[in-house]
Amino acid sequence: MLATTFVLLPLVARGQTQDPSPGGLAAAIALDPTTYAPAVAFYVSARMDWSSSQPLFRNGFLEANPVFTISGRPMDVALSYGAGNRRILNDAFVTLELSAMNNLIDRVSVLALSERFPQHRTLIRRLGLVERITVASLTSYELSAAHLQQWRTNRDLVRQLGY
Questions:
Q1: Cα distance between residue 163 and residue 40, in whole Å
Q2: 79 by DSSP, 3-state: which?
Q3: What is the DSSP letter of 68?
Q4: What is the C-alpha radius of gyration for the chain, rounded to an integer number of angstroms?
Q5: How far is 146 from 137, CA to CA, in rounded Å?
Q6: 138 pLDDT above the threshold of 80
Q7: Residue range 83-94, pLDDT digits in tens
Q8: Comparing C-alpha atoms, which of 56, 130, 157, 53 is closest to residue 67?
Q9: Could you tell me the pTM of the whole model?
Q10: 9 close to 133: Cβ distance less than 8 angstroms
Q11: Residue 53 near residue 154 (C-beta atoms within 8 A)
Q12: How far apart are CA 5 and CA 149, in angstroms?
């Protein structure tokens, strides 16, 4: 998380804008890496997990995650590879939407607080930046950690079984 903060901080700081217009806010949100980092982290880790599960499914293993089963129940037959990929992509877009909403709320709050307390504009902008980086980092970790662990487990099991 600390590494992510140091990578994102300079990129986000460059993307800071004072333009309160809807177009200015939209551009700031679109250019802010904290908007899309959680969706990218989720998508990459979920795809690694899903792809590494395929050899196991072909050899009779069942899917434990009910989101990726035909019946919607755990320990059942997995969705097709394409259907799983579509589900992952859809979930990544939902994550992107939620992240963009968080960043919109943050930026509108920063603008409102900066107008209310003009003597503290720099502090307010920096706190907003810290909030966006913290939320993006924690969300990225929360959404990707289990998938990365499952990917490692799948990879090791596939190697062990020789699939």
A1: 29
A2: coil
A3: G
A4: 20
A5: 15
A6: yes
A7: 999 999 999 999
A8: 53
A9: 0.85
A10: yes
A11: yes
A12: 22
